[in-house]
Amino acid sequence: MTDPYVWTSTIALIVALFVFDFAVVIRKPHEPSFKESVGWSIFYIAIALLFGVFLHFWHEDFPTMEYLAGYITEKSLSVDNLFVFLVIMTRFAVPPKYRSRVLLVGIAVALVLRAIFIAAGAAALDAFSALFYVFGAFLIYTAWGLAKESQDDASEEYEEGRLVRLVRRLYPVTDGYREGKIMVREAGRRMVTPMLLVMVAIGSTDVLFALDSIPAIFGLTQDPFIVFTANAFALLGLRQLYFLVQGLLQRLVYLHYGLAAILAFIGVKLVLHALHENNLPFINDGEPLHVPEVSIGLSLTVILVILVIATVASLVATRRTGGDLDESLAEQRGEALEGAAAEGTAAGAPDSDGASPSSGERQRD
Prior knowledge:
- The chain is mostly helical.
- It has a domain at 77-223 and 246-345.
- 70% of the residues lie in helices and 2% in strands.
- It has 13 helices and 2 strands, in the order αααααααββαααααα.
- The protein has helices at 4-27, 34-58, 64-91, 99-127, 131-148, 151-157, 162-170, 194-218, 224-236, 238-245, 255-276, 296-317, 322-347, and strands at residues 183-186, 189-192.
- Strands 1-2 form a two-stranded antiparallel sheet.
- The longest helix is centred in the N-terminal third of the chain and has 29 residues, at 99-127.
- It is globular and about 70 Å long.
């Protein structure tokens, strides 16, 4: 898709949706209810699907199946990202009403950085088709690592990123969220609040996830427009999806196996594509190999089947332990509320907004 009008209109639509989301969050900071989260999640999923339907009928060359497969893949991978987001929110004791703002800013930063990655990846694949071998091998390796770890492993192994450590070195950090502000002046010096640290942590973590998801979608389509729009629409509804599934995340115990299977499948698909387009002199004397290629229709079917199996198996497996999982979620929410109470006590104001992690907790985000 190279039509400049389509690119311009699409970017304008995505920016408008982000601005609208920012306006809603900034006007009334609150923790969305389940009903509200369902409504907005359906809205953003509908926007993504209607976008594909519109271009399918308006632009005859639009690869609709590739767009749909890419969007579903990016959306499913984003659910796994949400578990780490939940860990970060809990570690920083973010008050529930500020979590929307944290997610939205982090997602906006991630989208800008992902756009840069996508442009670089598309240019590199155009210049060096052998990178399909690299992308395929990387996805298979990532799938193996993902299959071996559990959600508990992800939680325990998460450590503070370099960007967060850099912010801490540059600025002192307040002991509370200061009504959701990012930066304040206290005792004659400029200080940042934990709000900025969490936003940086969310944004930088999502960029790391892009190292998996962007090669994965390039395994489904090499059209930069599809790669960008699938990523953008998957990220657009991520804030609402977080509040919708935060109680469900710990029940998806087999999701990482499903995502590992999807990444491995796409990795094999990339390697097969690389062999079909081969020009490396040390493989078949630089001639293409006549290997089967996986169609986009088959890819979409495999992805959907894997997701359904992983989700159903997870819900069945955790049905009897639902009470324990609900208690765990309540404890996580309680940590944020305790943080809010701690800041209120320190400031002498019972209705203050929340406190950052203690110095010991700041060793990890």
